[in-house]
Every structure is written in structure tokens, then in C-alpha cells.
Amino acid sequence: MWQNIIIIFIIAACLFFIGRRVFRQFTGKQTGCGGSCGGCKDTSAQSDSCKSNTDFPKKTDA
Fold first, then answer.
1. If we measure between CA atoms, which residue out of 62, 6, 10, 59 comes closest to residue 33?
2. Cα–Cα distance, 31 to 47 (Å, whole number)
């Protein structure tokens, strides 16, 4: 009997994490290149927080 409870718990945990991953995939916020402010030279692809960060130095093509 206790083996069935463990199996049900494992299956429920798997379903929870799969559901969470699918939910985040469909509702997730698109970030810039790799998600960090320094990783993308194209300002149109940067996230809003990177664009509004005044302390972040702008990279230029050298």
C-alpha cells in the first residue's frame, strides 16, 4: 500500500513540474540575448529592464 502512495506522489510531482514548465513556456517573458544586459549589442532585442538601466554602459562596435 505505501508503495502505491510513493508512486502516486512521484507521478504527481512529475506532472506538476511538467505543467509548470509548459505554463512558463507559454506565458514567459521574452528577454534579450541570453537574458543579461551585457550579452546583446542589438538594443531592439534587449529586455525592457536593460534598456531602462542607466548605469549599464552601452556597448559599441569597435
1. 59
2. 5
